[in-house]
Design goal:
globular, single chain, 7-stranded mixed beta sheet, mainly beta, 4-stranded antiparallel beta sheet
């Protein structure tokens, strides 16, 4: 059974930083494309960052100066460093794993960790 477990969320003041972690089990972590998504209250799910199996990283232009994704294959873990946080970053953050095998897409997502940015 594939499991993705996020941690590191919490309450932070505007301008602060947080580092989210996601630990994966039940999959060959090195082969999967990992990403972070978020869903703010009343809004649609939004892609935040991605890192490929070859360690290429991807961000939407709006977040690439403040967010950094990384991973540790030995620990089957992916991280999201978030700096200069703004109340607009308040959301539930999800870790997801994607892979395409013989033309079939597979994806798994964790339960999420809540981030609240407020003074």
């Amino acid at each position: 059974e594939v499991q993705l477990v996020e941690s590191g969320g919490g309450l932070v003041q505007p301008g602060g930083s947080l580092r989210l972690s996601c630990t994966a089990s039940g999959l060959n972590f090195r082969s999967w494309h990992m990403k972070w998504l978020r869903q703010a209250p009343g809004k649609a799910l939004e892609w935040v960052s991605g890192i490929s199996s070859q360690d290429y990283t991807y961000y939407p232009d709006s977040l690439k100066r403040r967010f950094t994704i990384s991973k540790d294959n030995a620990k089957s873990a992916v991280y999201l460093q978030m700096n200069s946080l703004d109340p607009e970053d308040t959301a539930v953050y999800y870790c997801a794993a994607d892979i395409t095998v013989r033309g079939v897409d597979y994806t798994h997502r964790g339960q999420g960790t809540r981030v609240s940015v407020s003074s």
